[in-house]
Design a protein that fits this description.
There is one protein chain. Helix 4 packs across helix 8. The chain is built from 8 helices and no strands. The N terminus is likely disordered. It is mainly alpha-helical and 198 residues long. The longest helix has 28 residues. It has one domain.
């Protein structure tokens, strides 16, 4: 059932299926249940903006640890995280301009309420892309539950914040999560092949 819903949402967003199909209604209905009339919460605003500074801080900490402890693996991890985020972001931006989907508060004024003036494209969510690229990379690097669980909880809360603040549909966030995760898995595999010890 869930796979069918995901496929319908993605088809509706891509324009293959008319917007009146249930998937589009489901997308909007879920968003209406999350997005309040006044989404001015400081908590969700800070959570949303953490995607700009937290991954950079983690990468800087990995690099600093590597320099101080002469640990080349930690320095490689730092660059790998930045590379994965960069590739995921590039893919996300290319998809945004391909789909050219307006943000929900722009398409449904008075129904969906944004935290501030909306601009840019909606599908997929860039915040969700970066958050899940970060979480996936850290999970692959450290393979410890105490890294993996907080990383994905953070990625999930960043994604939720984008819906709460009225900037994205659930399908935008889902696509962003898939983009960030998929790009990071691919780049991790490529890096392993390119830089493996001979």
């Amino acid at each position: 059932m869930i796979q069918k819903t995901i496929v319908l949402i993605l088809l509706a967003v891509s324009g293959v299926v008319p917007k009146t199909i249930h998937a589009q209604n489901l997308d909007l209905d879920i968003l209406k249940g999350i997005n309040p009339q006044n989404p001015g919460s400081t908590y969700w605003s800070v959570t949303s903006s953490s995607v700009y500074w937290l991954p950079a801080t983690i990468s800087a900490a990995e690099f600093a640890y590597g320099v101080v402890n002469h640990d080349n693996k930690a320095k490689t991890y730092a660059f790998q995280l930045l590379l994965n985020i960069g590739v995921s972001t590039a893919v996300s931006e290319a998809l945004k301009y391909s789909f050219n989907r307006a943000r929900p508060a722009e398409s449904y004024p008075g129904i969906i309420h944004a935290n501030s003036v909306v601009y840019g494209k909606s599908f997929p969510s860039g915040h969700a892309t970066i958050a899940f690229a970060t979480a996936t990379t850290l999970a692959l690097q450290y393979k410890k539950w105490y890294v993996i669980v907080p990383a994905f909880i953070w990625a999930g809360t960043v994604s939720y914040s984008r819906m709460y603040e009225g900037y994205h549909y659930p399908s935008d966030v889902l696509a962003g999560a898939l983009t960030g995760t998929g790009s990071s898995l691919l780049m991790f595999w490529v890096n392993k092949k390119l830089f493996k010890k001979r």
